[in-house]
Amino acid sequence: MAETISMPKLGFDMAEGTLVRWVKNEGENVNKGDVLAEIETDKATVEVESSASGVVRKLLVEEGSVVPIGEPIAIVGSADEKIDDAPTKVVEPKTEKKTDEQGGVELKTEKEERSETKEEKPASQSQAVTAPVAQTEEPVEEGPVKASPLAKKVARDNKVDLARVQGTGPGGRVVRKDVEAALSGKTTDRGPQTMAPPTVSRPPSGEDETIQLTKLRQAIARRMTESTTSVPHFYVTHEYKMDALMAMRKQANDFLPDNEKISVNDFIIKAVALALREFPNLNASFAGDKVIRHGAVNVGIAVAVEGGLLTVVNRNTDQQSLRFISADVKRMVAGAREGKVKPDDIQGSTFSISNMGMFDVENFAAIINPPEAGILAVGSAREVPVVENGEVKVGWRMKATISVDHRVSDGAEAARFMQKLAEFLENPVRMLV
Amino acid sequence: MAKITMREAISQAIMEEMDRDPAVFILGEEVGVWGGTYAVTKGFYDKYGPDRIKDTPIAENAIIGAAIGAAMVGQRPIAELMTINFAFSAMDYIVNQAPKLHYMFGGQFQVPMVIRAVGGGGRQLGATHSQTPDAIFAHFPGLKVVSPGTPEDAKGLLKSAIRSNDPILFIEHATMYQVRGEVPDGEYLIPIGKSKVQREGKDITIVTYSKGLELSMKAADELTKEGIEVEVVDLRTLRPLDMEPVLESFKKTNRAVLVEEGWKSYGVGSEVASRIYEEAFDYVDAPIIRIAQKEVPLPYNRALEQAALPQVPDIVAAVKEVLK
Predict the structure, then answer these.
(1) Which residues of B touch A152 (CB under 8 A)?
(2) Domain boundaries, chain B
(3) Rounded to an integer, what distance in angstroms lies between the CA atom of residue B4 and that of residue B13?
(4) A 368-407 residues with CB below 8 A of B?
(5) Nearest residue of B to residue A175 by CA position?
(6) Do the beta carbons of residue A39 and residue A10 sit within 8 Å?
């Protein structure tokens, strides 16, 4: 029985997603769980897995299409099965040209994007023709690619990305012969160097520059405004003695290969999760006339990415080993920085941590990631003069500030939580037993 | 095949049908003794006599009204309007009575009437006598509107019109009576409601009719010299509009220029363009351009009149624009 794969809802405020790339083509075999496509949401480019096994019978939307959640995007079935001859849904690519500039690859640096495009080219040539790129130095225009309906149809039928076709019609409009020229490969020998996006020249000093917000930036702007205007925050700062933890970390890492070293942050994640287990009111969400205390402790970790930040989520953190947490977070952070995360990686957190320790930050306060009730902002662990038993000594200290939704909790509870956290961070062996 | 004028072709058609069917008769201003303002019915009065060739008062509503009445009781009148501009005096009969009688009286009556009307500008007849209001009449369901561009089509279509049981407005262009063209020997009919490819080409489609056909064929000749092969589709009938050859041609060329003599706004070209966009959107490779009369009452002054009317260079330029 053929199964229709729909645009998944990948976030609570997601209304639509852009289908950035089909990973599987029509006719290819696919197993349940295989990555079918890459979709760009408000937050990130995520991989969509097939919910069925079989053969990809039909791709219902074009790359670059903006698809409302729940709309069918593909049909997976058996090879000889008769499927409804659903007409290919043509969702007008909203900003095809823009996608390259700031959409689908927004989480990558320009350099990464370039190298990746190059790498992908030979592989994709067998399935889809890569049309020559417009070699224009002009700023990319807003709005859809100018192309005649016929050019669009020919491009669609032959899977040519119109944004990469040089238009020769009036005003640079792409017409049929341009697509056909691209198809016949007349200009393909221009080679990968033509794939390089035009270099962005800096405007002369003194001139204002207008930067269009990326989807990610828009989402951050919206969410943070929503948080600061609707969630009454209060902040509690605590200083932690990190000597034991630093020593234990060194000891543990001596046993671990380089790519598996456990970070200070991994310890903090684990400690926070264990503390939250004892403070269910902070592992919660405010919901009008009630508070929802979450059954699972899923710790979100803010990751700085190109042009913004994402929160990746480690699930059931309180029950995971340090080593697993470390590996899981490493994987997700790498994915986020490459602009490829799975939906599960960025949703469902119940409490977040923002760690700026690596930037030599003593202390800061974070904005709560709704609908969570709190977020922990972590500064650098640093060696400082400390007074112990009336003597000045050198010790490792780290400051952290919790921001809490005052509708859910109060200062005293937050302060006790920070003390509880100290029990774990200052006696890290407690995390292991 | 004989090469005859449009006037002769129309004249032959009427005569053949009058000889064939005694129910066919003519009424209009100066159609009898004078032989018609454009000499189409010259000699008819002597041949058929005053019973079948009726000179009427200068009262268009009376001409059409009488024709409708005669048609309802079994005659086959050919009512001639000296110019289509006078049709406005008989508007109620033309658009409100003739097309609706069959429908409103449950099929009890038919109106097998042909209104021959002379339309078009270019003869310095002034703003009120030079109009090309074809689209207005093509707007009304129930009224068939035919307007030929060649003698062959004129003869075959008019004979079909006379034999049709529906009211038909047959519009002849004032400047085309002397146009010569080959006409098949012997009797033939051309069905109403069929467009025709008058010239084959692969680069662009011109859709036109009547005077526009003459201009478009000349433009196509000029464009050939530059290596542009134009396909010319002649609508011949404005209602019912046969889009099939148009769409077929457009799907081949993907580009079109629409040529008509009437004003551009709400015109025949607008209708054709809309149909193309609706029915062949995925084949559109360039915007469709309409060539039509400037949006002014047609001037009397010859130079100004010619400037306001669509001309061959306008079509040539439009074709090049669309092919850019």
Answers:
(1) 282
(2) 2-183, 196-323
(3) 12
(4) none
(5) B285
(6) yes
- pLDDT band of residue A145 (cuts 50, 70, 90) is confident
Helices (H) and strands (E) in chain B, counts: 12, 14
| Tens digits of residue pLDDT in B272-301 | 999 999 999 999 999 999 999 999 999 999
CATH architecture of B2-183: 3-Layer(aba) Sandwich (3.40)
The mean pLDDT value for A55-65 works out to: 86
Q: What is the mean pLDDT of chain A?
A: 80
Find the closest chain B residue to A154 by CA distance: B282
d(CA A297, CA B319): 70
Determine the pLDDT at residue A182.
Answer: 85
Query: What residue type is assigned to position B50 of the chain?
Result: P
- Do B286 and A151 lie within an 8 Å CB cutoff? no
- Residues in chain A with CB shorter than 8 Å from the CB of B285 are 148-151, 175-176
Per-residue confidence band for B86, with pLDDT thresholds at 50, 70 and 90: very high
Read off the tokens for A213: 């917000």
Domains B2-183 and B196-323 share a fold: yes
pTM of the model: 0.52
Q: Beta-strand (E) ranges in chain B?
A: 2-5, 24-28, 53-55, 76-81, 114-119, 144-146, 168-173, 180-183, 196-199, 204-208, 230-234, 237-239, 256-263, 289-293
List all residues of chain A from 125 to 154 with a beta carbon under 8 Å from chain B: 148-153
A77, A78, A14, A21: which is closest to A48 by C-alpha?
Answer: A21
Q: What pLDDT shows up at residue B121?
A: 96
CA A181 to chain B, closest CA, distance in angstroms equals 15
Do A175 and B285 lie within an 8 Å CB cutoff? yes
The CATH number that domain B196-323 falls under is: 3.40.50.920
Distance from CA of B246 to the nearest CA of A (A): 17
Query: DSSP strand E in A51-150: where?
Result: 54-59, 66-68, 72-77
Mean pLDDT calculated for residue range B76-84: 97
CB contacts < 8 A, A to B, total: 25
**Comparison of pLDDT for A34 and B55, the residue scoring more:** B55
